[in-house]
Specification:
Chain A: Its EC number is 2.3.2.31. Chain A: This is RBR-type E3 ubiquitin transferase. Chain A: Residues 114-127 have a biased composition (Low complexity). Chain A: Residues 1-21 have a biased composition (Acidic residues). The complex is a heterodimer of chains A (554) and B (171). Chain A has 18 helices and 11 strands. Chain A is mainly α. In chain A, strands 1-5-4 form a 3-stranded antiparallel beta sheet. A two-stranded antiparallel ribbon of chain A has the order 2-3. In chain A, a hairpin with a 6-residue loop joins strand 8 (325-326) and strand 9. In chain A, helix 17 runs antiparallel to helix 18 (500-531). Chain B has a single domain (3-168), classed as Ubiquitin Conjugating Enzyme, CATH 3.10.110.10. By secondary structure, chain B is an alpha+beta fold. Chain B has helices spanning 3-23, 122-134, 144-152, 154-169, and strands at residues 30-36, 39-48, 59-65, 76-79. In chain B, 35% of the residues lie in helices and 16% in strands. In chain B, a hairpin with a 2-residue loop joins strand 1 and strand 2. In chain B, strands 1-2-3-4 form a 4-stranded antiparallel beta sheet, sandwiched between helices. The chains are: A mainly alpha (554), B alpha+beta (171). Chain A binds chain B through residues 138, 145-149, 152, 155-157, 159-160, 165-169, 187-188, 191-192, 195, 199-200, 202, 206, 208-211, and chain B through 4-5, 8-9, 11-12, 14-16, 19, 22-23, 25-27, 29, 50, 69, 71-73, 101-103, 112-114, 117-121, 123-124, 127-128, 130-131, 134.
Chain lengths: 554, 171
């Protein structure tokens, strides 16, 4: 039996349960292929999957090394300079080469590298021409911002002329400087670099001297700091590289070290593809946007809209609209908390009727009793209110379901623990081995995955225009939800030693079915994007609106 | 913090103190020094209000608290008693870019070049504070009420500052 066969969607759980394979064969199949209902088969790519690679840190380091070696050979500079230049240009090699060929001195200066030939440390005097002019200009800027400081500078004696200006040690063991010639003792340098790298996480560190924009080269850091600090620095460079390279993304899971490389999800494709990638440790995240976790089947732009809607207080405004009325004259918001229907606006003193919103004067002698119907002025006022009330109800319908699945997904940690206990129990009460009871854990995993999908289908449904396509979408959603709830229920059922083989069979079948439904859901939505079947009821970034209504399938 | 860094902090503070007492401050705008011989990490500064500002004629007392990794980290400055100024918190703490490390920027308005660096000194910071007294920076206010007052009703701001100066002098 091939569980991952795509072509046959239409069987339901009963069919599988009726399947004729005996217990033993399904067990052996499970043992052979541990992941058979977790990972979709790799050889056949589903339409909702994208190509990506998961890289180790060393692989990234190799890319960086290759880049800097190229720069080193083209520009004839040392490794530190190449690294600073690349970081300055955001690792854009082509642009760096172009700019550098154009005007090397300017690029070097902008990157914080004095343009002179490298001179040994503690040789400050001759290499100052360039930095000193820069200092002169920046002093002018200082003067304008902090006038009294600069003016009063002259009469004050400078700090100790010899020795380290930072710690005031007059005879430090060794003094070093960058190419700008600002001399400080090695201990101060080490402390300073350590603070910058460890506490502030910076990889572009300026010289300690005031207003000096020369950057500390890598070699200097290696020489001055201990190994732990230097390796942290290398990691920061790595992160800088990944952050500036479009087809790379760091796995956002805490302390995960993998980087995902993906070239098949350029920003322009994000309106039709949800580029979900999985790192080698199994952390799923979206390559196209910073939303944590898997937000299939909803595309990034709409998912962002939804999260924004849930987070910001636009719904507060919606509540106000639904539960309050506006004074028809001055538009002040009024909540009626008691009293009769004869309202007098506290602000503009306008008198109106709370029931029909018409002016009170039209009520004549019918005091405290509004039996008038259909006055034009009042029906208009009522219309806007009921509209916003309907929109709030609609939002809450989808939000409650969304939040419910999110909540369940959060509780999955507990469910894991509970299931783990059950699995132990089953081992004791039946003859099954630990590997053979893994079906329960797999069911939990599948439920969690499907709840994530379901969660986002509700956000998607909120933004979908009414159409046949949406109805089909909702059918799929309902099927998936039903299947997930059934499986959840199975997971919650108490264990009866008699029934363990039955339960196992049922749960395994259900898990496969749920997985299938999830695939159908994702596949169908992904195809829908490609065919342009979905039309949104709100403007979406990157998607033109007012196209002809895309209607397909009956 | 380890011993060597607090030893170098002490050495640096002693040097700065020596230079301040020898050189004196320009135009005698301020004096600063440790409160007691036994604790070099807590200083007191007396600052005279700059001329042609509502602070003129006042003497303001500020406490400087140095961290043990000074000068890698900046010290803290607090007016005691607090003064009325847009860039001074109600409790007297001074909010000025030169006393912020590049990492922390509570107001996100400051360029890294204006921040603390180990080559700054007590003297430079206090001179900056004096110039701040004369020209408040409303973009990154610490005392928002005072910022509003300064912006909307400057005469009233100046009147209140003068009243505060008189009060602090005990007049």
């Amino acid at each position: 039996m091939d569980y991952s066969d795509d072509d046959d969607y239409n069987y339901d759980s009963d069919e599988i349960m009726d399947g004729t394979q005996d217990d033993a064969s399904s067990v052996s199949e499970m043992d052979e292929d541990e992941d058979f209902h977790i990972q979709p088969t790799k050889d056949k790519k589903k339409s909702y999957e994208i190509d990506f690679d998961c890289l180790e840190q060393t692989a990234i380091q190799d890319i960086i090394r290759a880049d800097s070696e190229q720069i080193i050979s083209i520009f004839n500079v040392d490794a530190s300079t190449a690294s600073l230049l690349l970081r300055h240009m955001g690792w854009n090699k082509e642009r760096l080469i172009e700019k550098y060929m154009d005007n090397p001195a300017q690029v070097l200066e902008a990157a914080g590298i004095p343009s002179q030939q490298p001179a040994g440390p503690s040789q400050p005097a001759p290499i100052r021409s360039n930095p000193s002019t820069r200092q002169a200009t920046s002093t002018v800027i200082r003067r304008s911002t902090r006038r009294s400081t600069a003016d009063s500078k002259a009469p004050v004696a400078p700090l100790t002329p010899v020795g380290c200006l930072i710690c005031c040690d007059e005879n430090p063991a060794s003094m070093t400087s960058l190419m700008c010639g600002h001399n400080f003792c090695s201990e101060c340098w080490a402390e300073y670099l350590k603070g910058k790298i460890r506490d502030e996480g910076e990889c572009s560190i300026k010289c300690m001297a005031e207003d000096c924009s020369v950057l500390v080269p890598d070699a200097f850091i290696k020489e001055t700091c201990d190994a732990a600090v230097y390796s942290r620095f290398e990691e920061l460079v790595l992160r800088h590289f990944v952050a500036h390279t479009k087809n790379l993304k760091y796995c956002p899971a805490p302390s995960c070290v993998y980087t995902v490389s993906c070239t098949s999800a350029p920003p322009s494709s994000l309106t039709t593809v949800v580029p979900t990638v999985v790192c080698k440790k199994g952390h799923a995240f979206c390559f196209g946007c910073p939303i944590e976790g898997d937000h299939r089947p909803l595309i990034c732009a709409v998912a962002k809209l939804w999260l924004q809607k849930c987070h910001d207080d636009s719904e507060t405004a919606n509540w106000i609209k639904s539960n309050t009325k506006e004074c028809t004259k001055c538009q002040s918001t009024i909540e009626k908390n008691g009293g009769c229907n004869h309202m007098t606006c506290r602000k503009c003193k306008h008198e109106f009727c709370w029931v029909c919103m018409g002016p009170w004067s039209e009520h004549g002698t019918a005091w405290y009793n509004c039996n008038r119907f259909d006055e034009k002025s009042s029906s208009e006022a009522r219309d806007t209110q009921s509209k916003s009330r309907i929109s709030l109800e609609r939002y809450l319908h989808y939000y409650n379901r969304w939040a419910n699945h999110e909540q369940s997904a959060k509780l999955s940690v507990e469910l894991y623990a509970k299931t783990e206990k059950k699995m132990e129990e089953m081992q004791i009460t039946s003859s099954l081995t630990w590997i053979e009871v893994q079906f329960a854990r797999k069911a939990v995993e599948e439920v969690e995955r499907c709840r994530t999908t379901l969660k986002w289908t509700y956000a998607m449904a909120y933004y979908l225009d009414r159409s046949n396509a949406k109805e089909l979408f909702e059918d799929n959603q309902r099927d998936l939800e039903k299947a997930v709830e059934d499986l959840s229920e199975l997971l919650e059922t108490p264990i009866d030693p008699e029934n363990i083989p039955m339960l196992r069979q049922k749960m395994t079948d259900k898990t496969v079915y749920v997985q299938k439904r999830n695939e159908i859901m994702l596949e169908d939505t992904a195809n829908g994007y490609l065919e342009g079947r979905w039309s949104w009821n709100t403007p979406v970034e990157g998607i033109e609106r007012d196209e002809e209504p895309a209607s397909s399938s009956a | 913090m380890n011993k060597s860094s607090s030893a170098s902090a002490l050495r640096r503070l002693m040097t700065e103190y020596k230079q301040l007492t020898e050189g004196g401050s320009p135009d005698d705008m301020f004096t600063a020094g440790p409160i007691s011989e036994s604790d070099f990490f807590t200083w007191e500064a007396l600052i005279s209000g700059p001329k042609d500002t509502p602070f003129e004629g006042g003497i303001f007392v500020a406490k400087l608290t140095f961290p043990s990794d000074y000068p890698l980290s900046p010290f803290k400055m607090k007016f005691e008693p607090p003064i009325l100024h847009p860039n001074v918190y109600a409790d007297g703490n001074v909010c000025i870019s030169i006393l912020h490390t590049p990492g922390d920027d509570p107001t996100h308005y400051e360029a890294a070049s204006e921040r603390w660096s180990p080559v700054q000194s007590v003297e430079k910071v206090i001179l900056s504070v004096i110039s701040m007294l004369a020209e408040p920076n409303l973009e990154s206010g610490a005392n928002i009420d005072c910022c509003k007052l300064y912006r909307d009703n400057k005469p009233e701001y100046e009147r209140r500052v003068r009243a505060m100066v008189r009060e602090q002098l005990g007049l």
